[in-house]
Amino acid sequence: MADDDDLWFLPGPPDDIAPTDPPWEVAQQKPVFTPKDWLRTEAAQGRGLARAAAAFARLDALVSDGFAKRLALAEASALLWAQGDWVPVEKITLYGLLRESSLKDARALSLADWAQRRLLGVGMPENLAGFLGRRRAEFDGLEELGQHPIGIEFDGLEADWHAAQRGLKDAHPITQAAGLFAAWRAFGLSEPGAAVEAGVAAMKIGAVEGRALRFLPVASGGTIGQGGAVADRLAHWYAAVENACLQAEMQHRRLNTWAKRAERASAGLSGKTPALLIEALQAVPALSARMVAQACSCDKATARRNLNRFAKRGLIREITGQGRYKVWVAVTQ
């Protein structure tokens, strides 16, 4: 058999092809996120979008700072539930004011407290690392297996997410919120299965047209984050926004009714604490005597005395059943 050097009549390899290059064409990869799909779907689902936008506008006209805090707690709890962490709003309330938690739920409570603060804050900065509170790293990769990306890897994913945001700029803010929630999870800006960071970012974007409410309620209105076709995802998102806003509106109505009843029932009580206690119970879903003392600027003895008076009048109830570290909620039903 002749040596390769003797096969002078065969053409040599092209100058622009490296010896390691494959002799076949590389198949084009399907984009992870396509903004045009969401724009087309929005146009086809105008009725669902209109209902969601109207529900948000009605709620936005009703909301106060205290009630917004209550809603933020509910949304933080619902986002945790969406990723498999069951932490009720009462626990998040206690953690936010008193930093009380058990070791098993400390991470979830810290994340919920971050979510509540970001939801109530103004706007959403362009720098996602700053928004998320992540420290810059000197290396590219993962902090540890199963954790969120950092460093150069995060910078690249953030650029992809902002590109998706620019692609959705002509969509309604509620549609943008749905699409960018999906894009966040598709790009992997948080650890797999996480919903809180993506949800908070989406809720801030969806509420840019709000006057009083700085976030878009959605997680408490139904299951979000399912896979499937864009049409199904967007329909679920619109329905969740509408349901969450309607539930919040009903809750607002119940709290107002309770406050009027509490004012009548406590009219004969002396001091400023009863009125401040009513305001505090409208703002947060649960209170301890220590929290009442902080909110009403009184000592614990005064706080306990007024809590007991409210309980005897059927205005509040204790939910722990403990002799110490009691927690109280308004009886709005």
Task: Report what the structure shows.
This protein is mainly α. The protein folds into 2 domains: 35-135 and 148-250, no CATH class; 266-330, Orthogonal Bundle (Arc Repressor Mutant, subunit A). The protein is 56% helix and 3% strand. It is built from 13 helices and 4 strands. It has helices at residues 35-44, 46-62, 65-82, 89-98, 106-120, 128-132, 151-167, 173-187, 196-206, 230-265, 273-283, 289-296, 300-312, and strands spanning 141-142, 149-150, 316-318, 328-330. It is elongated.
Structural descriptors:
333 residues, mainly alpha, Arc Repressor Mutant, subunit A, two-stranded antiparallel sheet, two-stranded antiparallel ribbon, elongated
The total strand number stands at 4
Assembly state of the chains shown: single chain
Strand arrangement within the widest β-sheet reads 1-2
Low-confidence stretches: 137-146
Average pLDDT rating: 86
Quote the distance from N terminus to C terminus: 95 Å
- Bin the helical content: 55-70%
**Major beta sheet, specifics?**
2 strands, antiparallel
Q: Return Rg in Å.
A: 27 Å
Q: So how many helices?
A: 13
Gist of the model:
By secondary structure, the protein is mainly alpha-helical. It has 2 domains: 35-135 and 148-250, no CATH class; 266-330, Winged helix-like DNA-binding domain superfamily/Winged helix DNA-binding domain (Arc Repressor Mutant, subunit A), CATH 1.10.10.
